[in-house]
């Protein structure tokens, strides 16, 4: 299975979905990303979708919602800062 994160114009992660490997051309990242993006668009789901790795094999770590962002310069997903407790 392939995973795709919906990213806003200001690089916040809104959602993460699963796409079957066959719907990504059965290939490996990065070749699978544009095929998966086309599949998501064909379903009528709007937005910018970037492939993320469940095992952290690319783009740093697996994207998640709740304060996660995408750093386009480093091409990685970034966890929200950890709040310190006293």
Task: Write a brief caption for the model.
This protein has one domain (2-78). Helices cover 13% and strands 28% of the residues.
Please tell me about this protein's structure.
By secondary structure, this protein is α+β, with helices and mostly antiparallel strands. The protein has one domain. The chain is 13% helix and 28% strand. It has one helix spanning 32-42, and strands at 2-7, 13-19, 48-52, 69-71, 76-78. The strands form two sheets. It has a three-stranded antiparallel beta sheet with strand order 2-1-3, covered by helices on one side. The longest helix has 11 residues, at 32-42. It is globular and about 50 Å long. The model has no long low-confidence stretch (mean pLDDT 95).
SSE topology:
Layout: E1 2-7, E2 13-19, H1 32-42, E3 48-52, E4 69-71, E5 76-78
Antiparallel strand pairs: 1-2, 1-3, 4-5
């Amino acid at each position: 299975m392939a995973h795709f994160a919906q990213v806003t114009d200001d690089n916040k992660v809104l959602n993460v979905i699963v796409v079957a490997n066959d719907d990504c051309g059965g290939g490996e990242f990065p070749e699978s990303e544009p095929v998966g993006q086309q599949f998501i668009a064909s379903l009528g789901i709007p937005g910018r979708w970037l492939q993320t790795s469940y095992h952290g094999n690319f783009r740093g770590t697996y994207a998640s919602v709740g304060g996660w962002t995408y750093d386009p310069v480093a091409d990685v997903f970034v966890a929200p800062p950890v709040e310190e407790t006293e």
